[in-house]
Amino acid sequence: MDKIKKREELVEIDEQKWVNDSSLDHKGRVPLRGSTGVWKASLFIIVIEFSERLSYFGLATSLIIYLTKVIHQDLKTAAKSVNYWSGVTTLMPLLGGFLADAFLGRFSTVLASSIVYLLGLILLTMSRVIPSLKPCDTDLCHEPRNVHEVIFFLAIYLISIGTGGHKPSLESFGADQFDDDYAEERKKKMSFFNWWNFGLCCGLLLGVTLIVYVQDRVSWAMADLILTLVMASSIIIFVAGRPFYRYRKATGSPLTPMLQVFVAAIRKRNLLFPANPSHLYEIPKSDTSQRRLLCHTEKLKFLDKAAIVDGTQDSTVQQQNPWRLATVTKVEELKLVINMVPIWLTTIPFGICVAQTTTFFIKQGVTLDRKIFHGFEIPPASIFALAAIGMIISLTIYDKVLVPVLRRATGNERGISILQRIGIGMIFSVSTMIVAALVERKRLNLVHKDPLEGSSRMSVFWLAPQFLIIGIGDGFTLVGLQEYFYDQVPDSMRSLGIAFYLSVIGAANFVSSLLITIVDHITEKNGKSWFGKDLNSSRLDYFYWLLAIMTAVNLCVYVIVARNYSYKNVHCKATMSVAVCNDTDDREAMA
């Protein structure tokens, strides 16, 4: 007994000293727990995220103003242009995440994509500084040069490409700094996504206040120069943190094993299921100390046939051919991805609501009274800061107040399940669109009463409630989606998992553009379009009511999908400090 106890103590000491989750340090060795990862590494990572969000929101929130005032696009065209750019920017991470997981690794992908992002900012600065590339030679530009438009759009889409590698890889790289199999680090990781978004919101806040103010009062060129210098500095800081990071090797295409499961299941479609699921093929735990094994689940049983050992063939030959025999873990990983599709689809309407904040909400601010004190007038895009404030408030209260209370009440480490958190945010999105519709109706009434002054006597802070509410909703849904897609994808697809989260927003931007086109066509055919040349000739209040109804109906569908969702179920890993079945805490479905 003394020998067993001594062995257990040695294993526990070893676990406290070394990180045994398949990660490596910068020299390719097993990382020391005390000198790598956790917050000491995450702070470097959050700095470059702060810089990227500062740049992104400094550009994104004022993009519709630039397109209408400098490029001279009409409201409908400008809104579509913003949605297309936002859509590409948030769908590109699917490619970047795949390359990071399969070939390049997360650190290398972040570094390369950040350099591409920096090149985009440099090109954008050049388009506003070099005389031959500027919109025109005068301050008031009635018709911009074609070369400026080409360089401008090339620059912002180069930034989209940079974001494509940066966003999914950086966030998953940050989460990789926490060991899921070590209880203390696992709890810190649950806070990581909250504090990651806190840093993101700080970047957003400065982007829509300081940067937008410089754009409005100094010059677009000066704002671009500031963003370029900040991004260059943050890349240097990110590289300086290299000795503190934990790295994961690229494991090859994560899509190949899934295709192998499909092929094996089709080949064995005529075989009978074994009476006991334990007879399905799996690698013995002793053969895989690094890879986490998943438990068998009853859903999508057809795929289980891929793990049936065919008694009529040599078992050794089958085990050597992954196109004929798959492990239970590989089958379950494919099930995880398939089960995510309904969740992904039912969160798109929330993304459509978010898309309005950087288009129509900002454009509304242009028409309102933006003076606050002593004649100081805030830039229209700065009102977006209220969304960031709402998100910071909700994240702080959630992490510091709600989670501790709910942990004691529910016994769940997270407080509430991830899907419950997402659903709460969706309720806020419905409220946002209702409030936005009422405020826009009030604005239009003022325009009809006094066509000359219109809504210029109405304070811009009438928009505050809709920005605050959507910001609070973001603190639940967007952060919940980040955690959900990182946590529930197969371990080999975690950069792609973050890309799946971003693709919700990307797809929502494209759907929003499509919805504008459809509504414009239908309403114009039946009399007068809801989208005129400007806001005063439009009926955005009707459009907001439509979104509120769509989101409310979708919320009901989401609840049904969430209640029937099965979370990732990892085999317990016996350790001396804790028995880990860490992905089953969310087993309760959406209530």
Automatic annotation (TrEMBL):
It is a multi-pass membrane protein. InterPro entries: MFS_trans_sf, NRT1/PTR, POT_fam, PTR2_symporter_CS. The chain crosses the membrane at residues 84-104, 110-130, 195-214, 220-240, 336-358, 378-398, 418-439, 459-486, 498-522, 542-561. Gene3D superfamilies: MFS general substrate transporter like domains. It is found in: Membrane. Pfam families: PTR2 (PF00854). Keywords: Membrane, Phosphoprotein, Transmembrane, Transmembrane helix. Belongs to the major facilitator superfamily. Phosphate:H(+) symporter (TC 2.A.1.9) family. Belongs to the major facilitator superfamily. Proton-dependent oligopeptide transporter (POT/PTR) (TC 2.A.17) family. This is Protein NRT1/ PTR FAMILY 5.6-like. It comes from Solanum pennellii. The gene is LOC107002362.
